[in-house]
Design goal:
The longest helix has 17 residues. The protein has two domains: 77 residues, Ubiquitin-like (UB roll) (Roll); 78 residues, DNA polymerase, domain 1 (Orthogonal Bundle). A five-stranded mixed sheet has the order 2-1-5-3-4, with helices on both faces. It is an alpha+beta fold and 167 residues long. Strand 1 and strand 2 form a beta hairpin. Helix 2 packs across helix 5 and helix 4 packs across helix 5.
Length: 167
Protein backbone atom coordinates (compact mmCIF):
# COMPACT_ATOMS: atom_id res chain seq x y z
CA UNK A 1 0.00 0.00 0.00
CA UNK A 2 1.31 3.44 -0.96
CA UNK A 3 1.89 5.70 2.07
CA UNK A 4 3.18 8.81 0.27
CA UNK A 5 2.00 10.82 -2.71
CA UNK A 6 3.40 13.47 -5.00
CA UNK A 7 1.67 16.76 -4.48
CA UNK A 8 1.70 20.15 -6.18
CA UNK A 9 0.45 23.19 -4.32
CA UNK A 10 0.50 26.85 -5.27
CA UNK A 11 1.42 28.42 -1.94
CA UNK A 12 1.53 32.20 -1.72
CA UNK A 13 1.94 32.39 -5.48
CA UNK A 14 4.80 29.88 -5.62
CA UNK A 15 4.49 26.41 -7.16
CA UNK A 16 5.56 23.79 -4.63
CA UNK A 17 6.14 20.16 -5.58
CA UNK A 18 6.66 17.65 -2.83
CA UNK A 19 6.20 14.09 -1.77
CA UNK A 20 4.23 13.84 1.44
CA UNK A 21 2.72 11.29 3.76
CA UNK A 22 -0.89 10.59 2.79
CA UNK A 23 -1.92 11.26 6.40
CA UNK A 24 -0.28 14.71 6.61
CA UNK A 25 -2.61 17.64 7.11
CA UNK A 26 -2.29 20.80 5.07
CA UNK A 27 -1.25 22.54 8.30
CA UNK A 28 1.64 20.15 8.88
CA UNK A 29 2.82 20.39 5.26
CA UNK A 30 2.79 24.19 5.41
CA UNK A 31 4.69 24.36 8.70
CA UNK A 32 7.00 21.37 8.57
CA UNK A 33 7.67 20.74 4.91
CA UNK A 34 7.41 24.24 3.45
CA UNK A 35 8.77 26.19 6.42
CA UNK A 36 5.81 28.56 6.82
CA UNK A 37 5.40 28.95 10.58
CA UNK A 38 2.79 31.73 10.41
CA UNK A 39 -0.05 29.24 10.32
CA UNK A 40 -0.44 28.04 13.90
CA UNK A 41 -1.38 24.69 15.36
CA UNK A 42 -3.80 25.44 18.16
CA UNK A 43 -6.29 22.72 18.97
CA UNK A 44 -5.62 20.41 15.98
CA UNK A 45 -9.37 19.67 15.93
CA UNK A 46 -10.76 22.57 13.86
CA UNK A 47 -12.23 24.33 16.88
CA UNK A 48 -9.98 27.36 17.41
CA UNK A 49 -9.23 28.77 13.95
CA UNK A 50 -5.52 29.41 14.61
CA UNK A 51 -4.71 27.36 11.49
CA UNK A 52 -7.01 29.29 9.14
CA UNK A 53 -5.64 29.77 5.62
CA UNK A 54 -7.25 30.62 2.30
CA UNK A 55 -7.71 27.61 0.01
CA UNK A 56 -8.63 28.68 -3.50
CA UNK A 57 -9.77 31.92 -1.90
CA UNK A 58 -11.99 30.36 0.77
CA UNK A 59 -11.05 30.27 4.43
CA UNK A 60 -10.49 26.81 5.85
CA UNK A 61 -9.09 25.17 8.97
CA UNK A 62 -5.91 23.64 7.57
CA UNK A 63 -5.67 21.15 10.46
CA UNK A 64 -8.76 19.35 9.14
CA UNK A 65 -7.66 18.93 5.52
CA UNK A 66 -5.39 16.19 4.25
CA UNK A 67 -2.78 17.79 2.01
CA UNK A 68 -3.17 15.11 -0.68
CA UNK A 69 -6.85 16.04 -1.03
CA UNK A 70 -6.00 19.55 -2.24
CA UNK A 71 -3.45 18.68 -4.93
CA UNK A 72 -3.11 21.61 -7.40
CA UNK A 73 -4.95 24.03 -5.09
CA UNK A 74 -3.92 27.62 -4.37
CA UNK A 75 -3.12 28.22 -0.70
CA UNK A 76 -2.58 31.63 0.85
CA UNK A 77 -1.09 31.83 4.32
CA UNK A 78 -0.54 34.94 6.42
CA UNK A 79 2.96 35.16 4.91
CA UNK A 80 1.42 35.52 1.44
CA UNK A 81 -1.03 38.33 2.18
CA UNK A 82 1.39 41.21 1.67
CA UNK A 83 1.50 43.04 -1.62
CA UNK A 84 5.04 43.76 -2.76
CA UNK A 85 6.45 43.74 0.74
CA UNK A 86 3.83 45.96 2.40
CA UNK A 87 1.21 44.81 4.85
CA UNK A 88 -2.23 43.75 3.69
CA UNK A 89 -4.94 46.29 4.69
CA UNK A 90 -6.29 43.80 7.25
CA UNK A 91 -2.83 43.44 8.78
CA UNK A 92 -2.50 47.24 8.89
CA UNK A 93 -5.88 47.52 10.62
CA UNK A 94 -4.94 44.85 13.17
CA UNK A 95 -1.77 46.78 14.00
CA UNK A 96 -3.56 50.14 14.14
CA UNK A 97 -6.27 48.80 16.48
CA UNK A 98 -3.90 46.73 18.63
CA UNK A 99 -6.08 43.73 17.73
CA UNK A 100 -3.83 41.19 19.39
CA UNK A 101 -2.31 40.38 22.71
CA UNK A 102 -0.18 37.25 22.71
CA UNK A 103 -0.48 37.07 18.91
CA UNK A 104 -0.83 33.30 18.63
CA UNK A 105 -4.28 33.43 17.02
CA UNK A 106 -3.53 36.52 14.93
CA UNK A 107 -2.45 34.82 11.66
CA UNK A 108 -5.65 32.77 11.63
CA UNK A 109 -7.72 35.80 12.59
CA UNK A 110 -6.16 37.84 9.79
CA UNK A 111 -6.66 35.13 7.15
CA UNK A 112 -10.24 34.65 8.32
CA UNK A 113 -10.88 38.41 8.12
CA UNK A 114 -9.50 38.52 4.56
CA UNK A 115 -11.83 35.67 3.61
CA UNK A 116 -14.73 37.38 5.38
CA UNK A 117 -14.21 40.58 3.41
CA UNK A 118 -14.21 38.63 0.17
CA UNK A 119 -17.44 36.86 1.20
CA UNK A 120 -19.06 40.23 1.94
CA UNK A 121 -17.89 41.64 -1.38
CA UNK A 122 -19.41 38.68 -3.21
CA UNK A 123 -22.70 39.05 -1.32
CA UNK A 124 -22.54 35.74 0.53
CA UNK A 125 -25.19 35.59 3.25
CA UNK A 126 -24.47 34.75 6.87
CA UNK A 127 -26.85 33.36 9.46
CA UNK A 128 -27.68 36.97 10.39
CA UNK A 129 -28.55 38.06 6.86
CA UNK A 130 -32.11 36.74 7.03
CA UNK A 131 -32.80 38.45 10.38
CA UNK A 132 -33.03 41.87 8.77
CA UNK A 133 -30.90 44.86 9.55
CA UNK A 134 -27.84 43.99 11.64
CA UNK A 135 -24.86 46.08 12.61
CA UNK A 136 -21.54 45.70 10.86
CA UNK A 137 -20.02 44.66 14.18
CA UNK A 138 -22.61 41.89 14.71
CA UNK A 139 -22.00 40.63 11.17
CA UNK A 140 -18.24 40.56 11.79
CA UNK A 141 -18.68 38.76 15.12
CA UNK A 142 -20.88 36.11 13.46
CA UNK A 143 -18.54 35.56 10.54
CA UNK A 144 -15.43 35.47 12.75
CA UNK A 145 -17.00 33.15 15.32
CA UNK A 146 -14.81 30.22 14.25
CA UNK A 147 -11.68 32.05 15.39
CA UNK A 148 -11.00 32.03 19.10
CA UNK A 149 -8.76 34.50 20.91
CA UNK A 150 -7.93 33.17 24.35
CA UNK A 151 -6.63 36.61 25.39
CA UNK A 152 -9.98 38.22 24.65
CA UNK A 153 -8.94 40.86 22.11
CA UNK A 154 -12.32 40.60 20.39
CA UNK A 155 -13.31 44.27 20.73
CA UNK A 156 -10.18 45.38 18.90
CA UNK A 157 -10.39 42.55 16.36
CA UNK A 158 -13.95 43.57 15.42
CA UNK A 159 -12.86 47.23 15.15
CA UNK A 160 -9.91 46.26 12.92
CA UNK A 161 -12.06 44.15 10.60
CA UNK A 162 -14.68 46.91 10.44
CA UNK A 163 -11.99 49.42 9.47
CA UNK A 164 -10.61 47.08 6.80
CA UNK A 165 -14.16 46.53 5.48
CA UNK A 166 -14.56 50.28 5.12
CA UNK A 167 -11.42 50.67 2.97
Amino acid sequence: MRTTSDLTLHVNGQRQQLRTDNRATLLDVLREELGLPGTKKGCDHGQCGACTVLLDGRRVNSCLILAVSVDAAAVTTVEGLNDGGGLHPVQEAFAAHDALQCGYCTPGQVCSAVGLLDELEQGWPSVLTSTGKVSVEDEIRERMSGNICRCGAYVNIVAAVAEAAGR
